[in-house]
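Interim report, section 4.2 (structural modelling).
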Amino acid sequence: MTGTAAKQHFALFARHPHLAYLDNAASTQTPQAVVGAMASYYTGYRANIHRGVYELSALATGRYENARGALARFINASADEIIFTSGTTAGLNWLALRLTQKFTSRDNVVLTRLEHHANLVPWQQAAKERGFSLRFVELTPGYEIDLASARTLIDENTKVVGFALVSNTLGTISPARELIALAHERGALTIVDAAQAAAHLPLDVRDLEADFVAFSGHKMYGPTGSGVLFGRREHLRRLEPLFYGGEMVSHVTYETAEWAGIPERFEAGTPAIAEAIGLGAAAEFITGLDLAAIRAHETRLTEYALEKVGKEVKIIGPADISRRTGVVSFVIKGAHPHDIADILDKHGVVVRAGHHCTMPLMRYLGLTGATRASLGVYSTAEDIDRLVEGVRYAKKVLCA
Amino acid sequence: MRLELPHSEIEAVYKEMILELFRHPLNKKIPKRYDVKRRGLNPSCGDEIEVMIAWEEGKLSDIGHQGQGCAISQAAASLITDYVKGKTATEILSITNTDMINMLGIPVSYTRIKCALLCLSTIQDALT
Ligand SMILES: Cc1ncc(COP(=O)(O)O)c(C=O)c1O
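Predicted structure of the assembly:
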C-alpha cells in the first residue's frame, strides 16, 4: 500500500488533503498506528519500566522490550544488540567518544565527503582531543562514493570507517558492502549512518556485516526523540557506557559499581518509553507495507521527478536510479534556495532549502545551498506535478 | 504551512521593489578605502555576507557588502547600507530589528527573519 492509499494512515493528510509533503528526509509524518501505540502507553499502562513489581510496570516493561524485538527483526539483529537512543546524532556521538579513547596520532578515521554534520563534527572533536587524523573518501563527478579513493585512504592505521548509507543531500546510496569489506580487510570497525535509509531501503545488518548502525525514529514514521544504535554483540560487550546511573548497573557499593548486561548498560536512567514503543510500532508499520514495495514505489516516483523536475532545474545527485533514493536536490541559476522553498510553500509544496547540515559537502560541490524535495511512502505523482508547477512559477518570479 | 494560496500572497513578499534590489543590489561593492570589515553568517542557510565600512569625521562615509543571499537578504542589505550612510555609530547601533523589517515593507515570516536582519546585525557587530 503506497501513494494515495498510504495517506489514509496519516491524520495529517486528512486535515491537509492537498499538501505535497516533500520534506521526508528531514522528518516523516506519523501514522495512526504509531500515535495509537504511544497513546495506549499513556492511557492504558503507564508506569516506569524494569522497576515496579506491580502488574502495570510489568506490562510497560513487556511492551518496551517487545519494541526492542520489533527493531531487532526490522534490521535482522538480536534484541540485545539494539540500544534505544534519542536518535542518530546520539548514537554517533557515543561511538565517536567511546571508540576513540585509545586512539593515537598514528591512527586515522575514514569518513566520506558527503557526511551529515552528525557523522562529522563528533569525529572532529574526538580527533582534536586524541590527535588521530580524519580522512575523507572523495566523490565521483556523478555524485557517488569513489571506491578508488576509499582504497587509497583506508590503510593499516585506519581504525574506523564511517559513512552514510544514503546521503541526505544527494540521495546517493553508498557502496556499503565494498566499503565494509575494505575496512574489515584492514581491521577497521565500520559505522553505518542509516538515518536516510531506514524507511526507504531494506536493511539487514547481518548481511551488511556492519559493526554499528545508527538511525532515527522520526525519519521512519516514528516518534521524535527516538532512535536505535545497533552494535554487534561482541563489540557491545567490551564497550564502556556513556552515562552512569540507574538501570545500567548490576551491583553497586559506595565505592564501586558493576555494569548490567547488554544492552541495559547503555540505557542509563528512565528511557523515552512511549517513544520506544512508538518506534516499535513504526518498524511494524513499515514491514506491514513491505519495504521492497516502498522502495519500488519511491524509485518509480524518483524517476518521474528526475525527468520532470530535471527539465526545469539542475539536479544535484546521481542520475542512475538504482544508485539513489528519492532525495532530489536541485539548484536554479539566479534563484536562491530560500526563495524557491518559500514560493513552493505558498503553493502547498513543502521542501527544504539550504545546506542540509552538510556545509562542507556544499563547499566541496561549489554550492552555497540547494533546494531538496524528498519522497516518502505516501508521495504521489500529483505531488511531483505540483512541485514542477511551483518550480516553474518560482522561476518566473525570481529569474524574470 | 500555507496551502494553495493565491499568487497574490507570493507577490506580497516578492514585490517588484524586492526583486529589483535582488537582481541589482545597492552598495554591492568593495569600497576603495575602508576602516573595518566584518563577516556575518546565517547559520540556517549558510549564507555569508561581508560588510566593509569607511568612517570620516565620526560618520559612516562609505559602505559596501559582498556575498550571496536570497532575495530578502539582498534587498535588506541594499536598503540598510543606504540608510546608514552619514550616520554616527550611536545612531546606527540604535536601529532596531523592527526598523529593518519596516524598511523592507513586506510580511517577513519567522523563518526568514534571519535573512532580513543579517546585514544589519553584521554592521552593528562591526561597530562593537
Ligand atoms: C544522513 C543523516 N545523518 C544523521 C542525521 C541526524 O539525525 P537526527 O537529527 O535524527 O539525530 C540526519 C538527519 O538530519 C541525516 O540525514
